[in-house]
Amino acid sequence: MTPRDTAPDRPTPTELAGLLAGGSRIGVSTSATKVEGRAHEGGRTESVWDAFARRPGAVADGSDPERGARHMERYREDVALATELGVDVLSFSLSWSRIQPEARGGLRREGIAFYDELVDALLAAGIRPRAALHDHDLPVELQDRGGWLHRDTALRFGDLAYLAAEALADRVPDWVTLRTPALTTMGGHVTGTHAPGSRLGLDALPTVHHQLLAHGLAVEAIRGSRSAARVGIVNAHRIVEAASADDDDRAAALVARALHQDLFADAVLLGRYPDLTGPHAEAFERLGRVDPADLRVIGQPLDHYGVALADPIRVAAVPRLVAGSTAIPFTELPWADHPSSLDGHPVAPDLVPAVLADLRARYGDALPPVVLSGLDAAHPEQVDDRDGSRRDPRRAHSISDHLVQALAAVAPGGQAEGVRIEAVVAGSLLDGFEWEAGRAAPRGLVHVDPRTGDRTPRSSYRFLRDTLRERADTAAGRRPQNGCAGPAYPGSSPGPRVGS
């Protein structure tokens, strides 16, 4: 197969800007654990990622979140970079360990003050803040008491949501309760590759319900604060295929799909868990017996719904499992049909229409306006020794290809017509600590030197900047100068290096 990133028909920034003129907001993201730094300052207690990173071999390069991208020290530079980029939205997450270190009582003033300042800086720059309450970084104090396996964590999260909304929702119009809770279940509690690193198999299922209950309680809390804030969640969505037409493989694929997305999306959007039949249904029966009042809390209508595009997976059944086993009844096979990112993940923008069409078919009018993310990945780059500029054409390709596929899918007559894309999170603004990959797989539009913290915009940053400038010109009725903002991908003038 010819890699998609050699395709000759990609749009220029001018052409892509025309596709974006329909009104979807464009944003970038950060994550507290990945970028903030100062992990043991200002009263912040440890999160599960601080503890997990100390385990030998848990993080690919042995790094930890201690420094991140030094975002707390340099957030004004980062807001300036986002402003220069031309984005409408910056999506960030709050560190629970920083703002409520003991996971009880009031907010720590020093912790919430940072987010106060960040929000004010974004608003002053004309950038819309989108705050996520939780991005996989549970305080160790709660993990030591059972974490997401215990219902009490959901109740504590509801309290946190109310306090955070009281502090920030007068200025933060859009809120996310949880980012990709399926990853916390699957990586954090099923396979152990993600913090907190538990390997429980299907005994991890209580983490599904307790995270979703936390989501529902947070929705109530945010709406109960003195604000008109809009609330949603981010769930991962992907293509899941059986490895063959064999009945066992097909049954295993249904279980994989449920664990990776349907348990989370059905409960939130339909107010119920999916009915699973077949040899593995027994393990899911406990979810069918939950209190209906919980499902009413979980299934409250949302203002927006985050769709994080995740890796496609091909699934084969695990043979000869003992009846009643809580082992995962499937194995995920390599997906070799597409080119891979730097850390081995398939880059498959051509599957985006199928993901969006599946959402439309499954949820219909229950699907709120979508906020699309997951367009970027870790990609190789070339560094010019003369001026330090960084060229990462494949990241620009990935963002452009995903955008084109998504916008075509939801257009009239498209495969996913009827899905409204309210906003697109085009990628990570900064390099940082990338979960179990550490610093070995940087994902930022802006390179961050792990030693000095210096920022250097990559060519993908310049491509997106040029596209958004063209979009602004189109919206204002101005003709682009010379008909084009510059080259379609890398090669425009090197971006500035922001020093320490």
Automatic annotation (TrEMBL):
Residues 471-500 are annotated as: Disordered. GO terms for biological process: carbohydrate catabolic process. InterPro entries: GH, Glyco_hydro_1. Keywords: Glycosidase, Hydrolase. Its EC number is 3.2.1.21. GO terms for cellular component: cytosol. It holds the Pfam family Glyco_hydro_1. This is Beta-glucosidase. The keyword Metal-binding does not apply. Belongs to the glycosyl hydrolase 1 family. GO terms for molecular function: beta-glucosidase activity. Residues 483-500 have a biased composition (Low complexity). PANTHER family: GLYCOSYL HYDROLASE, LP05116P. The keyword Hydrolase applies. The gene is bglL.
